[in-house]
Each structure stands twice: as structure tokens, then as C-alpha cells.
Design brief:
12 helices, 70% helix
Length: 319
């Protein structure tokens, strides 16, 4: 991971900030280009601008924080909320290119390969105990984001954490683009009437159903963001903290299954999600090198400021 930052006045923009602000700008541009197909397009653009401003403010204060925990909290909070917002912001953009959901292609492909629909077939083994474990795996993914960030930050340092959250960000943004390029409504809106066995469980099943009803929207299916982000977490845990890797391995493997067992996704969505995560990890060094060249060109075009260095590394906060 690079420590090079882009100086915008007193603000220091890191590579992770660059892809987040770039994604907000790109989706705003896409919204304006397809304004006739996006209900309330002006409101969406306004919200994107507002989120960008709020994000910049939080980033600025995170860099000003002198102690490790406030610095970590502001940084991870801003990044995590930005990723969550981008997931929601792409909702109204899903049909701007194709104008219809493409579930039929996924269903036909899975029928051809498996001679059945995996998400429907799983009803044969559905039990409350299995449902509860898989829903636990699906739900625990949410706190895994910041918890693993904290472990990496405190044990391996800020640059290691930036490597982790950058890879997560690139993965999430690729998933968001996937929702627009190949919009899929998902199993429940498309074949929900074919499910005959209820997903009975306990506490985590109830939480999973709450997430389905209150935080999800129709679409956002392929690639599966759950499968994609969990793959990045798994690989980054192996890279930076092997005990965490061992702990989350059964959870991540179960999470893959939970995406289509829990009827959030098709089997294909999970496979494509894993592939997108691997692609993002391959692209990360290329994007980082591009970012470094951008910073270098910007610095060479800016008159030197004797008051502070033109290139600012992210300094480790004092203990």
C-alpha cells in the first residue's frame, strides 16, 4: 500500500479516499446522463454531493486526531459508511442501461449446469439449526468489517489497514458497477412463490430477515457483495493476522452458502462475487501505481510550499 497522499490545500487525500470520491462522482455523472430514467435524479446527485462533503470533513478530522482510537474510529467509520451509502446510491441506476431485470439468464444457466435451481433445491436440507448457523454467518459479516480493521490497525499499522480498506472499497465499487451492467432482481422477487419451506430459526435468523426487509432493495444481486467482501476479508486476514484467518475461515465458507441458502442471491451471484474479489485484489497494485503517478504529477505541477512538504505520508499517531 502506498503512503502517498494528494494535497488539496490542508486536506490530504489517500488512495482509498480517491476511489470513494471518484465513485461518488462517477455515479453522479451516470445519474445525470440517464436523468430521464432515474426518478428524483437531482435529489440523488445532491445526496452524493452531500455525502462527499461529509466524507471529506470526517477524513480531515481523522487526520487531525492525535490519539490512535479516535483516529481509527473516524477513519473506519467514514470509509464503512461511504461503502454502505454507495451500495444504496446505485439502487435507482440498476435499469438505466438494460431497462429490465436479467434474472432469466441466470436461472436458465443454473438450470442448464445443475439441472435444477440450487437455491430451491436447498429446501430439501433446510432445518432451523442450519438456518440459524448460516444466518449467523451472513449477519456477522457486518461487524467483521470494523473488527478486522481494528485488529490489522493495532497489530500491523495504519498502512496495512489502508491496504485492507482500499481492497474492500475497490471490490464494493466493482460490485456496484455490476448491478448496473447486469441487473438481477434476486430470488425472492423473481421466484419467491416457488419456495415452500420457511426459513425458521432463532435470533440471527430474525436479524437476517430484518436486514432483508429494511436494508436491502430489489436488485444488488450480482456480484454478491457479501461473497466478494468476505473473500477480501479472508485473504487480508491471512496476509496480516493468521489467527483471525483461522477463526473466520468456517464463517466465510458458510457465508458463501448462506447467500443462496438464505434466498438473498442465486448460486451464480456468490461465484461471481468471489471472482470479483480476486479481480479487485489483482487490480489493487495497478490502481495504486496509477494513484502514485497522479500524486507525483500533481506535486510536480504545484509550486513547492516551504511551510509544509508537498508529499505527505500518513503519519502514525502517537501512542
Amino acid at each position: 500500500m502506498t503512503d502517498k497522499t494528494l494535497a488539496l490545500g490542508s486536506l490530504r487525500i489517500r488512495a482509498t479516499d480517491g476511489i470513494i470520491l471518484g465513485a461518488l462522482g462517477f455515479f453522479s455523472l451516470l445519474t445525470m446522463l440517464f436523468a430521464g430514467s432515474v426518478e428524483g435524479w437531482w435529489m440523488l446527485v445532491g445526496k452524493n454531493i452531500g455525502v462527499a462533503i461529509l466524507y471529506i470533513v470526517l477524513v480531515h478530522f481523522s487526520l487531525l486526531a492525535s490519539r490512535k482510537f479516535p483516529r481509527f474510529l473516524l477513519r473506519v467509520g467514514a470509509v464503512t459508511l461511504a461503502y454502505a451509502y454507495l451500495f444504496g446510491a446505485v439502487d435507482k441506476l440498476q435499469l438505466v442501461i438494460h431497462g429490465e431485470w436479467l434474472d432469466a439468464y441466470v436461472l436458465d444457466a443454473e438450470q442448464y449446469v445443475f439441472d435444477l435451481q440450487p437455491t430451491l433445491w436447498l429446501q430439501h436440507i433446510t432445518t432451523p439449526a442450519l438456518t440459524e448457523w448460516l444466518m449467523f454467518s451472513y449477519v456477522i459479516y457486518i461487524p467483521m468489517y470494523p473488527v478486522l480493521s481494528g485488529i490489522i490497525y493495532y497489530l500491523r499499522g495504519e498502512l496495512a489497514m489502508e491496504d485492507y480498506i482500499f481492497a474492500l472499497g475497490l471490490t464494493n465499487i466493482l460490485c456496484d458497477l455490476g448491478f448496473v451492467l447486469f441487473p438481477v432482481a434476486g430470488p425472492m422477487p423473481t421466484i419467491g412463490h416457488l419456495y415452500t419451506v420457511p426459513l425458521d430459526g432463532y435470533v440471527f435468523t430474525a436479524i437476517g430477515e430484518f436486514i432483508r426487509s429494511h436494508l436491502h432493495y430489489i436488485g444488488g444481486s450480482i456480484p454478491s457483495p457479501h461473497a466478494a467482501a468476505a473473500t477480501v476479508m479472508w485473504i487480508m486476514a491471512y496476509r496480516y493476522h493468521r489467527p483471525s484467518f483461522l477463526v473466520i475461515t468456517p464463517i466465510v465458507l458458510s457465508l458463501y452458502v448462506s447467500t443462496f441458502y438464505g434466498r438473498y442471491h442465486y448460486f451464480t451471484d456468490a461465484v461471481v462475487g468471489i471472482a470479483v474479489a480476486l479481480l479487485a485484489l489483482k487490480l489493487t497494485p495497478i490502481v495504486i501505481k496509477t494513484w502514485e503517478r497522479l500524486v507525483e504529477r500533481t506535486q510536480s505541477a504545484t509550486p513547492p510550499n516551504t511551510g509544509r512538504p508537498a508529499q505527505g505520508a500518513v503519519e502514525a499517531p502517537p501512542e
